[in-house]
Design goal:
The protein has 33 helices and 23 strands. The protein is 47% helix and 15% strand. The strands form 5 sheets. Strands 3, 4, 7, 8, 9, 10, 11, 12, 16 and 17 form a 10-stranded mixed beta sheet that branches. Among the domains are: 185 residues, 3-Layer(aba) Sandwich (Rossmann fold), CATH 3.40.50; 325 residues, Rossmann fold. One of its GO terms (cellular component) is cytoplasm.
Length: 830
């Protein structure tokens, strides 16, 4: 069956328009009116903004529908090797503006909107960010899909259709509050339901609602139904339109008519409600037993639906199972989809009836694994009881994989039982609390394991999974992350991208290596003026937007100093806050101090169960309130925590940022991608030698960044003797900052509120070494402010950063994946 046959039909009298090099059918203005009349059943003149947005989005979908169909038809006819990118997150943001840009329809749509008296930007604002991801992992997956489509690679993304996303963040009395993110409460105009392509997923247990909660009932097998919803992934120029397929869960018997007839109206619906809960929320709170079980079930549901779907597609065109690795490349985005290893083995063993050796060889050659973390606690380990309850057959397969693998290890390393224990897929725990090590399973069950930055890949091999890397040295490789310059520069920053195009042409949009041609412009006074003007305009736009949406007033002539990312101790938002406390103390001690006005922006979410991360958010907000309330400091330092950080907010802030903080403890950040987006938009980086920041400095020159702090090796070497008390006793400003926090200066009406933060830094060992790096951070900050005072010198370095960001395009990353891991070639659509 063609994958896009149910996309909206063409208008009755189509016109042909050429946008870029690709023909599209229909007139947007005629389609727009038709959708208002036929879908919303309103007169165009009386429609409200949400109805107009939906009509415009459906009109754009109509325009791309033929190309979407042709893309899938080309794949069906040519039967190329296809990429299936499997991820629990796809942080795609809004789709309307991005699709219009990639279809090269923007001038026409904007003109049509203007002639029709429509507010184009207002319509764009009507679309919520899709609640399909949380942070860098999901945004990376979205950038990768964009690059695959732009590069005309035959690919499909697989994820889950979360009804409520992770959560919507608000700030109340400084604390993070979590609310349902009902992004699908209104129909999404981009998705296409494919109910006829449903998948049945068998479990060894049943989910039931009990006293308002979800419970697992063991030894009662059940079947879930996965309903696919497709979204178009438009490559730049509209030549290729791939699909992102999202799975929604329902029960096989969602409505029990017999119970309903007997008068049990609630019981008749309970089965369906329990099943649908599976895809209700991204990352259920895993601080509870039920939350952990639900997340495990989510991961299997994604894997089972996706493998059944891609195997069905493979078997439609290929009768020989031995062709599977030649026609299918499956990329596991982190450990979340690792259950693909035993699930693919189950399919090959139990459904295809292949022998073990053949099945194992096909599985390993088809699957590849991307690791995104060095944190041991982030390498998933699932209790054996979950497998016993839900997936007993998969546990049998994992045991057999482990038995054979450990036999190979013993043959190569006779007598080394300590090594055998370290590499085993099963981690033995006390009281029969054994767990399956999902990272080990992913490495053993695939042909490639890649890290996402040079330092990360090296530490992964030499530290995190050293024994496995020594056993499989040929499987380990690096693929430094990248982001799409089309979304993060061309779309997000039209003023700067226009200046760049005026200087070097528009070839950079699809070949970002050409951005290097901008380097001579750093010495061009006229271009420096254009750059500084684009930055000032972006800051003014952001300030106006912030005031209109939140009432917060910021000075666009101040330094916009930004740290936006998931809130976590290792990312060290608290180090940034300590820097601000020191600067605040300096101004309190010397109000006449010459210090450029600063606005410090923070943004990011803390996991609901992560108490210390939520306390850091509380401290940042109390710090902001205290500084705002000090008339001697007001206007010189301002701290702003931006709630509900998302793709759309980032698209506004990145162009406005002067400074990007990438200050993780060295050796803890896998890569980072916000650092790349800031760099592309002309912000200068103050950061540690960690993640991809190291490679950014190599590309731009260390003299064009502000690097500071311990290296990853120094962090490791100092573990045995590091004492935060030394810095407290010997660094006057460090001691003053910590004493001010301990004195409840920032929590006058909440005595002791920040005692845990103070004690974590000083009494509990400061594991992430905030105090070790604070003085060096302040020196980097001093250099930053000195440079900012010379606007011409600042512009030179900022332009050189933009011109040196070519390596960090997701197009380059995907080209490496395609060439070195997937062995997939472009499949152009005629």
């Amino acid at each position: 069956m063609n994958e896009a046959t149910s996309v909206s039909a063409k208008p009755e009298q189509p016109a042909r328009h050429e946008f870029g090099s690709v023909p599209f059918s229909g007139r947007p203005d005629a389609l727009f009116e038709r959708h208002l009349l036929s879908d919303a059943v309103v007169e165009p003149s009386t429609a409200y903004d949400r109805q107009r947005f939906e009509a415009l989005a459906r009109s754009v979908r109509d325009l791309l529908s033929r190309r979407w169909i042709e893309t899938q038809r080309t794949y069906d006819q040519q039967n190329p090797k296809r990429i299936y990118y499997m991820s629990m997150e796809f942080l795609i943001g809004r789709s309307l503006a991005n699709n219009v840009m990639n279809l090269m329809l923007k001038p026409f749509i904007e003109r049509t909107a203007h002639e029709g008296g429509l507010d184009w930007l207002g319509l764009v604002e009507q679309e919520p960010d899709a609640g399909l991801g949380n942070g860098g992992l999901g945004r990376l997956a979205a950038c990768f899909l964009d690059s695959m489509a732009t590069m005309q690679l035959p690919a499909m993304g697989y994820g889950l259709r979360y009804e409520y996303g992770m959560f919507r963040q608000s700030i109340e009395r400084g604390w993070q509050r979590e609310h349902p993110d009902g992004w699908l409460r209104r129909q999404d105009p981009w998705e296409v339901s494919r109910r006829s392509q449903f998948v049945e997923v068998a479990l060894g247990c049943t989910f039931e609602m009990h006293r308002g909660g979800l419970q697992i009932v063991a030894n009662r097998p059940s079947t879930l139904i996965g309903i696919p919803y497709d979204r178009p992934v438009v490559g730049f120029g509209g030549k290729t339109i791939n699909s992102l397929r999202l799975w929604s869960a329902t029960a096989q018997d969602a409505f029990d008519f017999q119970e309903f007839s007997s008068g049990d109206f609630v019981g008749a619906l309970v089965g369906g409600i329990a099943a649908q809960t599976l895809t209700r929320v991204l990352y259920p709170d895993d601080s509870t037993e039920m939350g952990q079980g639900l997340r495990f079930a989510q991961e299997y549901f994604l894997v089972a639906c996706s493998l059944a779907d891609l195997v069905r597609r493979f078997r439609r065109d290929n009768r020989d199972w031995n062709l599977l690795p030649d026609k299918v490349a499956i990329q596991l985005n982190d450990t979340h989809p690792t259950l693909a290893v035993p699930e693919l083995m189950r399919i090959l063993l139990d459904e295809a009836h292949l022998d073990w050796e053949q099945s194992w060889g096909l599985t390993q050659r088809t699957l590849a694994y991307t690791n995104h973390t060095l944190l041991p606690e982030a390498l998933e380990k699932w209790p054996l009881r979950y497998f016993q309850q839900m997936l007993p057959r998969h546990l049998e397969i994992i045991y057999e994989i482990n038995h054979r693998f450990l036999s190979d290890v013993r043959r190569r390393y006779p007598g080394d039982e300590a090594r055998v224990e370290r590499v085993s897929l099963i981690e033995e725990g006390p009281d029969n609390k054994d767990k399956v090590r999902m990272a080990n399973l992913a490495i053993v069950g695939s042909h490639s394991t890649n890290g996402v930055a040079a330092i990360h890949s090296e530490l992964l091999r030499t530290t995190t999974v050293r024994d496995l890397a020594e056993f499989f040295p040929e499987r380990f490789n690096n693929k430094t992350n990248g982001v799409t310059p089309r979304r993060w520069l061309l779309l997000a920053n039209p003023a700067l991208s226009g200046a760049i195009t005026g200087a070097i042409g528009d070839g950079w949009t699809t070949d970002f290596d050409k951005i290097a041609r901008l380097k001579p412009a750093a010495e061009d006074a006229a271009f420096r003026r254009s750059f500084l003007q684009a930055k000032r305009d972006a800051k003014a736009r952001f300030a106006n937007w912030l005031k209109s949406t939140s009432g917060q007033v910021v000075d666009p002539d101040s330094i916009f100093d930004c740290q936006i990312k998931r809130i976590h101790e290792y990312k060290r938002q608290m180090l940034n806050a300590l820097r601000i406390v020191v600067l605040y103390n300096r101004l309190r001690a010397n109000p006449a101090l010459d210090m450029a006005p600063r606005t410090f922006f923070f943004g990011g979410k803390a996991a609901p169960a992560y108490r210390l991360a939520k306390l850091i958010i509380k401290f940042i907000n109390n710090l902001a309130g205290t500084i705002d309330g000090d008339p001697a400091i007001r206007g010189r330092i301002k701290v702003v925590f931006l709630p509900e950080y998302c793709v759309s907010l980032a698209e506004r802030l990145m162009p406005a940022a002067d400074v990007s903080n990438q200050i993780s403890t060295a050796g803890f950040e896998a890569s980072g991608t916000s650092n790349m987006k800031f760099m592309m938009n002309g912000a200068l980086t103050v950061g540690t030698r960690d993640g991809a920041t190291i490679e950014m400095a190599q590309e731009a020159g260390e003299e064009n960044l502000f690097l500071f702090g311990l290296t990853a090796q120094q962090v490791v070497d100092s573990r045995g003797w590091y004492s935060p008390y030394w810095h407290y006793e010997n660094d006057t400003e460090t001691r003053a900052a910590l004493d001010l926090i301990a004195s409840d200066y920032f929590s006058r009406n909440e005595r002791g509120a920040f005692r845990l933060l103070h004690d974590t830094l000083l009494k509990h060992g400061d594991h992430y070494m905030h105090l070790a790096d604070l003085t060096a951070y302040l020196e980097a900050d001093r250099a930053l402010c000195s440079l900012y005072a010379d606007r011409e010198a600042w512009a030179r370095k900022a332009i050189l950063n933009v011109a040196s960001s070519g390596k960090f395009s997701s197009d380059r990353t995907i080209a490496q994946y395609a060439r070195e891991i997937w062995h997939v070639k472009p499949c152009p659509v005629a």
